[in-house]
Amino acid sequence: EFFDSMEPEEVEEEKKEESRSPRITREEIVSRFQAAEIERDRLRHINLQLQQRLADYLHKRKGTDDLPTITQANERSSAEQQQRYQKHLAEIEALQVKLKRDQNEFESRRSEIESHIETKKIRIDQLKAEYVRMVKEIASKAVFSRSGKTISTQEIEGYLADLKAKEEELIKTRHDFHFHLSS
Questions:
Q1: Do 134 and 156 meet the contact criterion of CB atoms below 8 Å apart?
Q2: What is the pLDDT of residues 39-59, one digit of tens each?
């Protein structure tokens, strides 16, 4: 093996260089595939020759003719395999394009929804502030019907704190409800 003839430091450096190497391009893959096909065909031819020689030897040795002869008819043609490879490669490329398009569409939609949510949050905060202002204004002018005294700022703040606590409890309840629905 290649690494057996190298020193341990060289092996580590070679592995580091391999991990830093850039990604293989499609053209390189195609050329490597074609080279591998040529090598496979060459080795297949040698294999067939050796099998034929073995069959001839066994025929001579046993004197039987019932052993089948080895032919290339049982094997797939290289052209068919190449065609299947090209078809699958085209499918992969089409799926990669679709994935990229779907990712872009998803990202666009996600950004749009986040923007819409942020706009709604700002509007809700404005409405809450307006509501608190109105409650304070109305409560500061209100009077108790029995005593005729005005409502103190402490009581107004207590009322607003109670409202805030109820709102937070409602939000928590809604969150829990939606969480259980999605589970």
A1: no
A2: 988 998 898 888 888 888 888
- Domain borders along the chain are 1-75
Q: What is the largest CA-CA distance in the chain?
A: 128
- Residue among 12, 78, 19, 9 at smallest CA distance from 43: 78
Asked if residue 141 lies in contact with residue 124, where contact means CB atoms within 8 angstroms, the answer is: no
Residues for the chain: how many in total?
A: 183
Enumerate residues 6+ apart whose C-beta is below 8 A from 135. 156, 159, 160, 163
pLDDT tens, position by position, 102-132? 999 999 999 999 999 999 999 999 999 999 8
What is d(CA 182, CA 162) in angstroms, rounded to the nearest whole number?
30
User: Computed over its alpha carbons, how large is the radius of gyration of the chain?
Assistant: 40
Round to whole Å and give the CA distance between 68 and 52: 10
pTM for the full predicted model: 0.44
Q: Is 76 helix (H, G, I), strand (E, B) or coil?
A: coil
Place of tokens 């409202």: 163
